[in-house]
Design goal:
rod-shaped; mainly alpha; single chain
């Protein structure tokens, strides 16, 4: 279709000059018809050869290039998706590691608190035992001191009584008087 339009545009000025009958360097319709047919034939042969031999190779090359570009894009998208998946996996592993570290710190903190509470309880028990022992020792020392005081008081009372009676009181009397004195002093406390 385009070929006919080109031929008609080329033939229009030629036909106009031929109708006027002027001599011009442009050939007449009869002279130009052979040239035109030859040109159209060469064009058609060239278009046929180009269309059957050259264009398929060019199209094949373009399709190969397109497929390579498409494969490159797909490979890049796959690599990007893989990198994104690896990044997500890394971030998840990092979050898991942080959570595990936090759990370990919390466990250690709880163990320290339990150990501190245990040590405090043990120290409190030991302190209570020491306090009880000291109080028992004080009580024993108090009783011993009171017994010594009572004994000394009984001895003094016996000596005073023997001087008062001016006679010597015997051992059985001493013992009985000492026990009575101790009893009376103990009953006062």
């Amino acid at each position: 279709m385009r070929t006919l339009a080109t031929i008609s545009l080329w033939l229009t000025p030629t036909l106009a000059l031929a109708a006027e009958g002027k001599d011009s360097p442009i050939p007449t319709l009869q002279e130009g018809l052979v040239t035109s047919i030859a040109a159209v034939t060469v064009f058609l042969i060239s278009a046929t050869v180009l269309g059957t031999v050259v264009w398929p190779k060019i199209l094949k090359g373009l399709k190969d290039r397109e497929s390579k570009i498409r494969e490159s894009i797909e490979a890049a998208e796959a690599a990007q998706a893989q990198a994104k998946a690896q990044l997500e996996q890394y971030n998840k592993a990092l979050a898991d590691a942080r959570a595990e570290a936090q759990r370990m710190l919390e466990t250690a903190r709880q163990q320290q608190m339990a150990q501190a509470a245990e040590m405090k309880a043990k120290a409190d028990v030991e302190l209570g035992q020491m306090k009880a022992k000291v109080l028992a020792d004080i009580e024993a020392a108090k009783k011993q001191a009171l017994a010594d005081v009572y004994s000394a008081a009984a001895s003094i009372a016996t000596q005073v009584a023997s001087k008062v009676l001016e006679r010597e009181v015997g051992t059985p009397d001493n013992l009985r008087l000492a026990q009575e004195a101790v009893s009376s002093l103990t009953s006062r406390n």
